TrEMBL record:
<dbReference type="Pfam" id="PF00724">
    <property type="entry name" value="Oxidored_FMN"/>
</dbReference>
<keyword id="KW-0560">Oxidoreductase</keyword>
<dbReference type="InterPro" id="IPR051799">
    <property type="entry name" value="NADH_flavin_oxidoreductase"/>
</dbReference>
<feature type="domain" description="NADH:flavin oxidoreductase/NADH oxidase N-terminal">
    <location>
        <begin position="67"/>
        <end position="371"/>
    </location>
</feature>
<keyword id="KW-0285">Flavoprotein</keyword>
<dbReference type="InterPro" id="IPR013785">
    <property type="entry name" value="Aldolase_TIM"/>
</dbReference>
<keyword id="KW-0288">FMN</keyword>
<comment type="similarity">
    <text>Belongs to the NADH:flavin oxidoreductase/NADH oxidase family.</text>
</comment>
<dbReference type="InterPro" id="IPR001155">
    <property type="entry name" value="OxRdtase_FMN_N"/>
</dbReference>
<dbReference type="GO" id="GO:0010181">
    <property type="term" value="F:FMN binding"/>
</dbReference>
<protein>
    <submittedName>
        <fullName>NADH:flavin oxidoreductase/NADH oxidase</fullName>
    </submittedName>
</protein>
<dbReference type="GO" id="GO:0016491">
    <property type="term" value="F:oxidoreductase activity"/>
</dbReference>
Length: 458
Protein backbone atom coordinates (compact mmCIF):
# COMPACT_ATOMS: atom_id res chain seq x y z
CA UNK A 1 0.00 0.00 0.00
CA UNK A 2 0.96 3.67 -0.36
CA UNK A 3 3.21 4.86 2.48
CA UNK A 4 1.53 8.25 3.08
CA UNK A 5 -1.69 9.92 1.97
CA UNK A 6 -3.41 13.26 2.44
CA UNK A 7 -6.36 13.47 4.79
CA UNK A 8 -7.27 11.84 8.08
CA UNK A 9 -10.51 10.12 7.12
CA UNK A 10 -13.21 9.95 4.50
CA UNK A 11 -16.62 10.73 5.95
CA UNK A 12 -19.51 8.87 4.40
CA UNK A 13 -21.28 12.12 3.56
CA UNK A 14 -18.16 13.39 1.75
CA UNK A 15 -17.86 10.21 -0.30
CA UNK A 16 -21.55 10.34 -1.14
CA UNK A 17 -21.36 14.00 -2.19
CA UNK A 18 -18.37 13.46 -4.47
CA UNK A 19 -20.02 10.41 -6.01
CA UNK A 20 -23.08 12.38 -7.10
CA UNK A 21 -23.75 12.90 -10.79
CA UNK A 22 -23.84 16.27 -12.56
CA UNK A 23 -26.06 17.06 -15.53
CA UNK A 24 -24.62 19.39 -18.14
CA UNK A 25 -27.04 22.31 -18.57
CA UNK A 26 -27.13 22.65 -22.35
CA UNK A 27 -26.19 19.27 -23.84
CA UNK A 28 -28.11 17.38 -21.18
CA UNK A 29 -25.27 14.87 -20.81
CA UNK A 30 -24.62 13.45 -17.34
CA UNK A 31 -21.23 13.16 -15.63
CA UNK A 32 -21.57 10.16 -13.33
CA UNK A 33 -19.52 11.71 -10.49
CA UNK A 34 -18.16 15.10 -9.47
CA UNK A 35 -14.60 14.12 -10.45
CA UNK A 36 -12.92 15.48 -13.57
CA UNK A 37 -9.64 14.04 -14.80
CA UNK A 38 -7.85 17.20 -15.81
CA UNK A 39 -4.48 18.85 -15.55
CA UNK A 40 -3.24 20.93 -12.67
CA UNK A 41 -0.26 22.56 -14.30
CA UNK A 42 1.13 23.74 -17.56
CA UNK A 43 2.32 20.35 -18.73
CA UNK A 44 1.42 17.91 -15.99
CA UNK A 45 -1.04 15.86 -18.01
CA UNK A 46 0.55 16.16 -21.45
CA UNK A 47 1.01 12.46 -22.16
CA UNK A 48 3.48 12.71 -25.10
CA UNK A 49 2.50 9.23 -26.27
CA UNK A 50 1.53 10.03 -29.86
CA UNK A 51 3.80 9.60 -32.87
CA UNK A 52 6.52 12.13 -33.62
CA UNK A 53 8.58 12.71 -36.76
CA UNK A 54 10.96 15.69 -36.97
CA UNK A 55 10.60 16.00 -40.76
CA UNK A 56 7.34 14.44 -41.95
CA UNK A 57 4.46 16.43 -40.48
CA UNK A 58 1.90 13.89 -41.68
CA UNK A 59 3.40 11.25 -39.39
CA UNK A 60 3.03 13.32 -36.24
CA UNK A 61 0.30 12.97 -33.64
CA UNK A 62 -1.15 9.48 -34.13
CA UNK A 63 -2.15 8.11 -30.70
CA UNK A 64 -0.11 5.07 -29.67
CA UNK A 65 -1.52 1.89 -28.19
CA UNK A 66 0.09 2.97 -24.90
CA UNK A 67 -1.99 6.15 -24.98
CA UNK A 68 -5.11 4.05 -25.54
CA UNK A 69 -4.05 1.87 -22.60
CA UNK A 70 -3.63 4.92 -20.37
CA UNK A 71 -7.21 6.01 -20.99
CA UNK A 72 -8.45 2.46 -20.58
CA UNK A 73 -7.12 2.54 -17.00
CA UNK A 74 -8.49 6.00 -16.26
CA UNK A 75 -11.79 4.84 -17.74
CA UNK A 76 -12.03 2.36 -14.86
CA UNK A 77 -11.47 5.03 -12.19
CA UNK A 78 -14.95 6.49 -11.73
CA UNK A 79 -14.42 9.93 -13.23
CA UNK A 80 -17.51 11.85 -14.32
CA UNK A 81 -15.49 13.57 -17.03
CA UNK A 82 -12.17 12.44 -18.47
CA UNK A 83 -10.28 15.17 -20.30
CA UNK A 84 -7.52 14.21 -22.69
CA UNK A 85 -4.25 16.07 -22.66
CA UNK A 86 -3.70 18.64 -25.40
CA UNK A 87 -4.92 17.51 -28.83
CA UNK A 88 -3.47 19.99 -31.28
CA UNK A 89 -5.14 21.47 -34.34
CA UNK A 90 -1.98 21.78 -36.47
CA UNK A 91 1.16 19.59 -36.71
CA UNK A 92 3.55 22.55 -36.46
CA UNK A 93 1.70 24.20 -33.59
CA UNK A 94 2.42 21.90 -30.67
CA UNK A 95 2.49 22.19 -26.90
CA UNK A 96 5.13 19.45 -27.05
CA UNK A 97 6.36 16.77 -29.45
CA UNK A 98 4.30 13.64 -28.93
CA UNK A 99 1.00 15.54 -28.74
CA UNK A 100 -1.95 13.90 -30.52
CA UNK A 101 -3.02 15.90 -33.59
CA UNK A 102 -6.22 16.14 -35.64
CA UNK A 103 -5.61 18.18 -38.79
CA UNK A 104 -7.81 17.80 -41.88
CA UNK A 105 -5.06 17.38 -44.53
CA UNK A 106 -3.54 14.53 -42.50
CA UNK A 107 -6.71 12.56 -41.79
CA UNK A 108 -6.12 8.85 -42.44
CA UNK A 109 -7.99 5.68 -41.46
CA UNK A 110 -5.12 4.73 -39.11
CA UNK A 111 -5.18 8.06 -37.28
CA UNK A 112 -8.95 8.06 -36.91
CA UNK A 113 -9.01 4.46 -35.69
CA UNK A 114 -6.50 5.23 -32.94
CA UNK A 115 -8.58 8.19 -31.78
CA UNK A 116 -11.65 5.95 -31.93
CA UNK A 117 -9.93 3.40 -29.69
CA UNK A 118 -8.87 6.16 -27.31
CA UNK A 119 -12.44 7.47 -26.98
CA UNK A 120 -13.90 4.00 -26.51
CA UNK A 121 -11.34 3.15 -23.83
CA UNK A 122 -12.07 6.24 -21.76
CA UNK A 123 -15.87 6.00 -21.89
CA UNK A 124 -16.22 2.21 -21.54
CA UNK A 125 -17.39 2.44 -17.93
CA UNK A 126 -19.67 5.45 -18.33
CA UNK A 127 -17.35 8.45 -18.03
CA UNK A 128 -17.81 11.33 -20.47
CA UNK A 129 -14.72 11.36 -22.70
CA UNK A 130 -13.92 14.96 -23.61
CA UNK A 131 -11.13 15.96 -26.00
CA UNK A 132 -9.08 18.98 -24.95
CA UNK A 133 -8.43 20.97 -28.14
CA UNK A 134 -5.53 23.38 -28.19
CA UNK A 135 -3.28 25.72 -30.18
CA UNK A 136 -0.09 26.99 -28.49
CA UNK A 137 0.17 30.33 -30.26
CA UNK A 138 3.49 31.89 -29.26
CA UNK A 139 4.01 29.15 -26.68
CA UNK A 140 5.57 26.57 -29.01
CA UNK A 141 9.22 25.67 -28.49
CA UNK A 142 11.56 27.03 -31.16
CA UNK A 143 12.83 23.46 -31.57
CA UNK A 144 9.41 22.56 -32.98
CA UNK A 145 8.48 25.83 -34.69
CA UNK A 146 10.76 28.90 -34.66
CA UNK A 147 8.10 31.04 -36.37
CA UNK A 148 4.97 30.96 -34.21
CA UNK A 149 1.82 33.03 -34.49
CA UNK A 150 0.02 34.84 -31.70
CA UNK A 151 -2.59 37.39 -30.77
CA UNK A 152 0.19 40.00 -30.92
CA UNK A 153 3.95 40.09 -31.50
CA UNK A 154 4.92 39.85 -27.82
CA UNK A 155 7.64 37.22 -27.48
CA UNK A 156 7.79 34.71 -24.66
CA UNK A 157 11.13 34.77 -22.82
CA UNK A 158 13.06 31.53 -22.37
CA UNK A 159 11.34 29.32 -19.82
CA UNK A 160 11.57 25.77 -18.49
CA UNK A 161 14.65 25.00 -20.59
CA UNK A 162 12.96 26.13 -23.81
CA UNK A 163 13.33 29.10 -26.13
CA UNK A 164 10.51 30.60 -28.19
CA UNK A 165 10.38 32.49 -31.48
CA UNK A 166 8.90 35.95 -31.90
CA UNK A 167 5.26 35.49 -32.89
CA UNK A 168 3.68 36.95 -35.99
CA UNK A 169 0.36 38.61 -35.08
CA UNK A 170 -2.54 36.79 -36.66
CA UNK A 171 -4.45 38.75 -39.27
CA UNK A 172 -8.17 38.17 -39.70
CA UNK A 173 -7.59 35.54 -42.37
CA UNK A 174 -5.25 33.68 -40.03
CA UNK A 175 -7.80 33.84 -37.22
CA UNK A 176 -10.49 32.41 -39.53
CA UNK A 177 -8.15 29.58 -40.48
CA UNK A 178 -7.52 28.69 -36.84
CA UNK A 179 -11.24 28.89 -36.04
CA UNK A 180 -11.84 26.40 -38.85
CA UNK A 181 -9.06 24.15 -37.53
CA UNK A 182 -10.68 24.03 -34.10
CA UNK A 183 -14.03 23.25 -35.73
CA UNK A 184 -12.55 20.42 -37.79
CA UNK A 185 -10.85 18.90 -34.75
CA UNK A 186 -14.13 19.00 -32.82
CA UNK A 187 -15.99 17.40 -35.72
CA UNK A 188 -13.32 14.69 -35.97
CA UNK A 189 -13.67 14.13 -32.22
CA UNK A 190 -17.41 13.66 -32.71
CA UNK A 191 -16.89 11.18 -35.55
CA UNK A 192 -14.46 9.13 -33.48
CA UNK A 193 -16.81 8.79 -30.53
CA UNK A 194 -15.79 11.53 -28.10
CA UNK A 195 -18.62 12.98 -26.04
CA UNK A 196 -17.45 16.54 -26.47
CA UNK A 197 -14.53 18.95 -26.53
CA UNK A 198 -12.89 21.36 -24.15
CA UNK A 199 -11.26 24.47 -25.61
CA UNK A 200 -7.94 25.14 -23.88
CA UNK A 201 -8.13 28.81 -22.99
CA UNK A 202 -5.71 28.82 -20.05
CA UNK A 203 -2.00 28.59 -19.18
CA UNK A 204 -0.82 31.02 -21.85
CA UNK A 205 -1.88 29.09 -24.96
CA UNK A 206 -3.39 30.88 -27.97
CA UNK A 207 -6.92 31.49 -26.68
CA UNK A 208 -5.47 32.73 -23.39
CA UNK A 209 -3.15 35.01 -25.37
CA UNK A 210 -6.20 36.70 -26.86
CA UNK A 211 -7.88 36.97 -23.45
CA UNK A 212 -4.94 38.52 -21.58
CA UNK A 213 -3.87 42.13 -21.97
CA UNK A 214 -0.28 41.06 -21.32
CA UNK A 215 -0.28 39.29 -24.70
CA UNK A 216 -3.03 41.11 -26.60
CA UNK A 217 -2.33 44.68 -27.66
CA UNK A 218 -4.58 44.59 -30.70
CA UNK A 219 -6.67 47.60 -31.70
CA UNK A 220 -9.17 45.76 -33.91
CA UNK A 221 -12.30 43.83 -32.91
CA UNK A 222 -10.13 41.15 -31.23
CA UNK A 223 -8.51 43.56 -28.75
CA UNK A 224 -9.48 46.02 -26.05
CA UNK A 225 -12.62 45.02 -24.16
CA UNK A 226 -13.10 41.54 -22.71
CA UNK A 227 -15.94 41.09 -25.21
CA UNK A 228 -13.51 41.71 -28.06
CA UNK A 229 -10.71 39.63 -26.56
CA UNK A 230 -13.10 36.68 -26.17
CA UNK A 231 -14.46 37.02 -29.71
CA UNK A 232 -12.32 34.14 -30.96
CA UNK A 233 -14.01 31.82 -28.44
CA UNK A 234 -17.45 32.82 -29.71
CA UNK A 235 -16.36 32.25 -33.30
CA UNK A 236 -14.86 28.83 -32.50
CA UNK A 237 -17.97 27.77 -30.59
CA UNK A 238 -20.27 28.85 -33.42
CA UNK A 239 -18.10 27.07 -35.99
CA UNK A 240 -18.15 23.86 -33.95
CA UNK A 241 -21.93 23.93 -33.76
CA UNK A 242 -22.14 24.28 -37.53
CA UNK A 243 -19.85 21.27 -37.97
CA UNK A 244 -21.49 19.29 -35.14
CA UNK A 245 -25.20 20.19 -34.98
CA UNK A 246 -25.87 17.43 -32.42
CA UNK A 247 -26.63 19.46 -29.29
CA UNK A 248 -25.78 16.46 -27.10
CA UNK A 249 -22.14 17.12 -28.00
CA UNK A 250 -20.58 18.77 -24.94
CA UNK A 251 -18.60 21.99 -25.31
CA UNK A 252 -16.51 23.08 -22.33
CA UNK A 253 -13.58 25.39 -21.81
CA UNK A 254 -10.57 25.76 -19.53
CA UNK A 255 -9.77 29.34 -18.53
CA UNK A 256 -7.53 31.12 -16.09
CA UNK A 257 -9.19 32.56 -13.02
CA UNK A 258 -6.04 34.65 -12.54
CA UNK A 259 -2.58 34.98 -14.14
CA UNK A 260 -0.48 36.32 -11.23
CA UNK A 261 1.03 39.06 -13.44
CA UNK A 262 0.72 42.83 -13.64
CA UNK A 263 -1.92 43.53 -16.32
CA UNK A 264 -2.58 39.78 -16.42
CA UNK A 265 -6.02 38.22 -16.52
CA UNK A 266 -7.75 38.96 -13.21
CA UNK A 267 -10.74 37.41 -11.40
CA UNK A 268 -13.08 40.29 -12.25
CA UNK A 269 -12.34 39.85 -15.95
CA UNK A 270 -12.67 36.09 -15.56
CA UNK A 271 -16.10 36.55 -13.99
CA UNK A 272 -17.25 38.74 -16.87
CA UNK A 273 -15.84 36.23 -19.36
CA UNK A 274 -17.63 33.36 -17.67
CA UNK A 275 -20.96 35.18 -17.92
CA UNK A 276 -20.33 35.54 -21.65
CA UNK A 277 -19.43 31.85 -21.89
CA UNK A 278 -22.71 30.92 -20.23
CA UNK A 279 -24.53 33.05 -22.81
CA UNK A 280 -22.72 30.98 -25.48
CA UNK A 281 -24.24 27.89 -23.82
CA UNK A 282 -20.90 26.44 -22.73
CA UNK A 283 -21.66 23.35 -20.63
CA UNK A 284 -18.75 23.55 -18.21
CA UNK A 285 -15.88 25.82 -17.28
CA UNK A 286 -12.72 24.46 -15.71
CA UNK A 287 -10.99 27.18 -13.70
CA UNK A 288 -7.24 27.13 -13.27
CA UNK A 289 -4.55 29.80 -13.46
CA UNK A 290 -1.00 30.81 -14.28
CA UNK A 291 1.13 30.95 -17.42
CA UNK A 292 4.61 29.84 -18.46
CA UNK A 293 5.82 33.19 -17.08
CA UNK A 294 4.05 32.88 -13.73
CA UNK A 295 3.13 29.33 -12.81
CA UNK A 296 0.68 30.31 -10.10
CA UNK A 297 0.80 26.78 -8.74
CA UNK A 298 3.67 27.41 -6.37
CA UNK A 299 3.15 31.08 -5.41
CA UNK A 300 6.69 31.32 -4.02
CA UNK A 301 10.06 29.64 -4.12
CA UNK A 302 9.18 27.48 -1.15
CA UNK A 303 5.62 26.48 -1.95
CA UNK A 304 1.99 27.51 -1.68
CA UNK A 305 0.86 30.18 0.77
CA UNK A 306 -0.31 28.93 4.16
CA UNK A 307 -3.93 29.81 3.38
CA UNK A 308 -3.65 27.85 0.15
CA UNK A 309 -2.31 24.85 2.02
CA UNK A 310 -5.31 24.95 4.34
CA UNK A 311 -7.65 25.29 1.40
CA UNK A 312 -5.65 22.88 -0.81
CA UNK A 313 -7.06 23.96 -4.17
CA UNK A 314 -4.85 26.74 -5.54
CA UNK A 315 -7.63 28.65 -7.27
CA UNK A 316 -10.68 28.29 -5.01
CA UNK A 317 -10.27 31.83 -3.64
CA UNK A 318 -10.65 33.16 -7.19
CA UNK A 319 -13.41 30.71 -8.10
CA UNK A 320 -15.43 32.07 -5.19
CA UNK A 321 -15.52 35.42 -7.01
CA UNK A 322 -16.68 33.81 -10.26
CA UNK A 323 -19.06 30.93 -9.57
CA UNK A 324 -21.84 33.03 -7.95
CA UNK A 325 -22.18 35.01 -11.21
CA UNK A 326 -23.28 31.89 -13.12
CA UNK A 327 -26.73 30.33 -13.15
CA UNK A 328 -26.43 27.27 -15.41
CA UNK A 329 -22.88 26.55 -16.58
CA UNK A 330 -21.10 23.97 -14.41
CA UNK A 331 -17.83 25.05 -12.75
CA UNK A 332 -14.91 22.75 -11.98
CA UNK A 333 -11.78 23.87 -10.15
CA UNK A 334 -8.48 22.12 -10.85
CA UNK A 335 -5.20 22.58 -9.01
CA UNK A 336 -4.14 21.38 -5.59
CA UNK A 337 -6.99 19.17 -4.38
CA UNK A 338 -5.54 16.26 -2.41
CA UNK A 339 -7.74 15.27 0.57
CA UNK A 340 -11.31 14.02 0.34
CA UNK A 341 -12.45 16.51 2.98
CA UNK A 342 -11.11 19.52 1.05
CA UNK A 343 -12.71 18.32 -2.17
CA UNK A 344 -16.09 17.89 -0.50
CA UNK A 345 -15.81 21.22 1.31
CA UNK A 346 -15.27 23.10 -1.96
CA UNK A 347 -18.42 21.54 -3.40
CA UNK A 348 -20.42 22.04 -0.22
CA UNK A 349 -19.49 25.74 -0.07
CA UNK A 350 -20.63 26.24 -3.66
CA UNK A 351 -17.13 27.13 -4.88
CA UNK A 352 -17.47 24.54 -7.62
CA UNK A 353 -19.77 21.73 -8.72
CA UNK A 354 -16.90 19.36 -9.37
CA UNK A 355 -13.21 18.90 -8.64
CA UNK A 356 -10.45 18.41 -11.18
CA UNK A 357 -7.57 16.05 -10.48
CA UNK A 358 -4.28 16.48 -12.32
CA UNK A 359 -1.20 14.97 -10.73
CA UNK A 360 -3.28 12.67 -8.47
CA UNK A 361 -4.49 10.97 -11.65
CA UNK A 362 -0.87 9.90 -12.11
CA UNK A 363 -0.04 8.95 -8.54
CA UNK A 364 -3.43 7.28 -7.91
CA UNK A 365 -4.93 5.89 -11.14
CA UNK A 366 -8.21 4.80 -9.51
CA UNK A 367 -8.57 7.63 -6.99
CA UNK A 368 -12.23 8.66 -7.60
CA UNK A 369 -13.58 5.16 -7.04
CA UNK A 370 -11.28 4.68 -4.07
CA UNK A 371 -12.64 7.87 -2.49
CA UNK A 372 -16.28 7.10 -3.29
CA UNK A 373 -15.86 3.61 -1.79
CA UNK A 374 -14.06 5.13 1.24
CA UNK A 375 -10.94 3.05 0.64
CA UNK A 376 -8.61 6.06 0.92
CA UNK A 377 -8.53 9.47 2.62
CA UNK A 378 -7.02 11.30 -0.32
CA UNK A 379 -4.22 11.29 -2.86
CA UNK A 380 -0.70 10.00 -2.32
CA UNK A 381 1.38 12.55 -0.39
CA UNK A 382 4.27 12.80 -2.83
CA UNK A 383 7.33 14.19 -1.08
CA UNK A 384 8.64 16.25 -3.98
CA UNK A 385 9.35 19.78 -2.63
CA UNK A 386 6.82 22.36 -3.92
CA UNK A 387 9.54 24.50 -5.51
CA UNK A 388 10.79 21.53 -7.57
CA UNK A 389 8.18 22.29 -10.21
CA UNK A 390 9.90 20.54 -13.12
CA UNK A 391 10.59 17.43 -11.07
CA UNK A 392 6.90 17.21 -10.18
CA UNK A 393 5.90 17.42 -13.84
CA UNK A 394 8.37 14.69 -14.74
CA UNK A 395 7.06 12.49 -11.93
CA UNK A 396 3.56 12.65 -13.40
CA UNK A 397 4.93 11.74 -16.81
CA UNK A 398 6.80 8.75 -15.38
CA UNK A 399 3.69 7.60 -13.53
CA UNK A 400 1.61 7.88 -16.72
CA UNK A 401 4.14 5.67 -18.50
CA UNK A 402 3.58 3.01 -15.84
CA UNK A 403 -0.21 3.29 -15.99
CA UNK A 404 -0.16 2.99 -19.77
CA UNK A 405 1.70 -0.30 -19.43
CA UNK A 406 -0.68 -1.60 -16.77
CA UNK A 407 2.16 -1.52 -14.23
CA UNK A 408 2.35 -0.24 -10.64
CA UNK A 409 3.21 3.44 -10.27
CA UNK A 410 6.17 4.47 -8.17
CA UNK A 411 5.15 5.58 -4.66
CA UNK A 412 6.77 8.99 -4.21
CA UNK A 413 5.52 9.28 -0.64
CA UNK A 414 8.27 6.77 0.14
CA UNK A 415 11.62 8.59 0.66
CA UNK A 416 13.56 5.63 -0.73
CA UNK A 417 11.47 5.61 -3.89
CA UNK A 418 11.80 9.39 -4.18
CA UNK A 419 15.59 9.06 -4.05
CA UNK A 420 15.51 6.37 -6.71
CA UNK A 421 13.27 8.51 -8.91
CA UNK A 422 15.42 11.63 -8.44
CA UNK A 423 18.54 9.72 -9.49
CA UNK A 424 16.73 8.29 -12.51
CA UNK A 425 15.52 11.77 -13.44
CA UNK A 426 19.07 13.11 -13.43
CA UNK A 427 20.20 10.32 -15.73
CA UNK A 428 17.19 10.93 -17.98
CA UNK A 429 17.99 14.64 -18.37
CA UNK A 430 21.66 13.90 -19.04
CA UNK A 431 20.78 11.36 -21.70
CA UNK A 432 18.30 13.73 -23.35
CA UNK A 433 20.95 16.45 -23.49
CA UNK A 434 23.42 14.06 -25.12
CA UNK A 435 20.79 12.86 -27.60
CA UNK A 436 19.89 16.42 -28.52
CA UNK A 437 23.51 17.13 -29.44
CA UNK A 438 23.27 14.20 -31.87
CA UNK A 439 20.01 15.46 -33.31
CA UNK A 440 18.00 12.68 -31.66
CA UNK A 441 14.81 13.54 -29.80
CA UNK A 442 12.40 11.14 -28.11
CA UNK A 443 9.35 12.92 -26.66
CA UNK A 444 8.37 10.09 -24.33
CA UNK A 445 8.88 10.16 -20.58
CA UNK A 446 10.74 7.21 -19.10
CA UNK A 447 9.31 4.17 -17.34
CA UNK A 448 10.54 3.44 -13.81
CA UNK A 449 9.29 0.17 -12.28
CA UNK A 450 7.81 0.42 -8.82
CA UNK A 451 9.74 -1.32 -6.06
CA UNK A 452 6.44 -2.08 -4.31
CA UNK A 453 4.50 -4.64 -6.32
CA UNK A 454 1.51 -4.31 -3.99
CA UNK A 455 0.80 -0.92 -5.55
CA UNK A 456 -0.63 -2.46 -8.69
CA UNK A 457 -4.26 -1.42 -8.40
CA UNK A 458 -5.06 -1.70 -12.09
Amino acid sequence: MVLARYGDSTASEDAKLLGESIQMPFSGRVAKSRFLKGENSLKAMSERMASWDPQDLSKRGIPSDDLVGLYERWGQAGYGIILTGNVMVHPEQLEAPGNPILYAPHETPERMEQFRKMAAAGKADGSLMIMQVSHPGRQVAALVNPNPVGASDIQLADRMGMSFGKPTPLDKSGIREIVNQFAYTAEAAYRTGFDGVQLHGAHGYLIAQFLSQTTNNRTDEYGGSIENRSRIIKEITEAIRVKVPDRKFVIGIKVNSVEFQAKGFQPEEAAELCKQLEAMEIDFIELSGGTYEEFGFKHSDTGPRESTLKREAFFTVFAQQITPRLHKTVVYVTGGFRSTSAMAEAVRLGTCAGVGLGRPAGSDPLLPNDIIQRNVTGATDMKIPPHEFGLGLLATGVQMEAIARGKPVIDLSDPKELTRFTEAAQSYHQQKAEDMKKGVFDPRFFYLPSANRELNLL
